[in-house]
Amino acid sequence: MGSSVEQNILVTGGAGFIGTHTVVQLLKEGFKVSIIDNLDNSVIEAVDRVRELVGPDLSKKLEFNLGDLRNKGDIEKLFAKQRFDAVIHFAGLKAVGESVGNPRRYFDNNLVGTINLYETMAKYNCKKMVFSSSATVYGQPEKIPCMEDFELKAMNPYGRTKLFLEEIARDIQKAEPEWRIVLLRYFNPVGAHESGRIGEDPKGIPNNLMPYIQQVAVGRQPELNVYGHDYPTKDGSAVRDYIHVMDLADGHIAALKKLFADPEIGCIAYNLGTGRGTSVLEMVAAFEKASGKKIPIKLCGRRSGDATAVYASTERAEKELGWKAKYGVEEMCRDQWNWANNNPWGYQKKL
Ligand SMILES: NC(=O)c1ccc[n+]([C@@H]2O[C@H](COP(=O)([O-])OP(=O)(O)OC[C@H]3O[C@@H](n4cnc5c(N)ncnc54)[C@H](O)[C@@H]3O)[C@@H](O)[C@H]2O)c1
Ligand SMILES: O=c1ccn([C@@H]2O[C@H](COP(=O)(O)OP(=O)(O)O[C@H]3O[C@H](CO)[C@@H](O)[C@H](O)[C@H]3O)[C@@H](O)[C@H]2O)c(=O)[nH]1
């Protein structure tokens, strides 16, 4: 199972939602992992729980570094003391609404942070990167399922940072062909580790559907606002491609293995989704079934900027990465509920 030579991976944003789940899988696969995170949207308790999940032996292969990618010196310090075989780059801000009100914060954090990272990687001759992109780069897709070669467009400053960063990656790799870069376009990551020990813990009132439903289920919010019930979909609510965060984590392992194995990979994008669309109302029903809790809903107008229906074509990832999502909506809701039920206040002890 483990990689033959112990490869050392730098994981930026490794204390966050997708980062923690991926770090668990990386350690189990035999990789050595160094996290850099400024804890802007995460807590150290999440990393402690990763250690608890993988046990004392594998924990020895995990190192946490408090640092900010906007500060080149923080990245430099890490590269100066050890060699990295590749970087998985999760660190970034991701709240669409906040990015509209404060675009400079998003450009500074996501763009400057990533450019600093590339500069330092180049300096230390580490030229393999897995980057967290997003289905947001498809904008309002004209056709579904979304294929990787569709035209790309951004709908807001957050989306623009992902689009720019994809373009930056393509330019760098074109100019310096020794770079190998995988751009992973996540659809809607949900669920949690099956242990219920790690999961998503957004600060403040959640913007995204599943964390919001979860907070209704545990009594932190009174009801769910369903944004849009007049879409031309099966039940009038919007359709998305929800993907279990553990499937997503495994997608990163597959991408990493491809990077190491394929010198010709260049810079390439892969969708990570299930290829299935689920409506908001279907998701509510699935969560009610998994949790045994009633989720009161209020039908509201559409949320501005939302697409009607988005889901992935998974063909390229299946064919070239040998990766396919294993879990369906039932397991996503089961694991999300297990996390919520055991940690109603997330990583906080109590409010
Ligand atoms: N969760 C989603 O719905 C989703 C969908 C598509 C793409 N993505 C992308 O995936 C990545 C990970 O998302 P997530 O859901 O795990 O988010 P998250 O906020 O839970 O994790 C991001 C981590 O990066 C850290 N971070 C942010 N800026 C940093 C900086 N300048 N220096 C160091 N650390 C920094 C945060 O503290 C946090 O721990 C992000 O780039 C996000 O844009 C997420
Ligand atoms: O309280 C809520 C929250 C959401 N929704 C609806 O649920 C659907 C899904 O919304 P959400 O969970 O916010 O996901 P998206 O808007 O699809 O965007 C997510 O998925 C994109 C693609 O991965 C990422 O780029 C974004 O960062 C991430 O927020 C949409 O129709 C929303 O209008 C509600 O009805 N009520």
Automatic annotation (TrEMBL):
Organism, as annotated: Microthlaspi erraticum
Keyword NAD recorded: yes
Pathway noted in the entry: Carbohydrate metabolism; galactose metabolism
Cellular component GO terms held in the UniProt record: cytosol
SUPFAM superfamilies per record: NAD(P)-binding Rossmann-fold domains (SSF51735)
Protein name (database record): UDP-glucose 4-epimerase
Cofactor: NAD(+)
Enzymatic class: isomerase
Catalysed reaction equations from the record: UDP-alpha-D-glucose = UDP-alpha-D-galactose
Phylogenetic placement of the source organism: Eukaryota, Viridiplantae, Streptophyta, Embryophyta, Tracheophyta
This enzyme's EC code(s): 5.1.3.-
Domain NAD(P)-binding: 10-335
Family: Belongs to the NAD(P)-dependent epimerase/dehydratase family.
InterPro entries recorded: NAD(P)-bd_dom, NAD(P)-bd_dom_sf, UDP_G4E
Keywords: Carbohydrate metabolism, Galactose metabolism, Isomerase, NAD
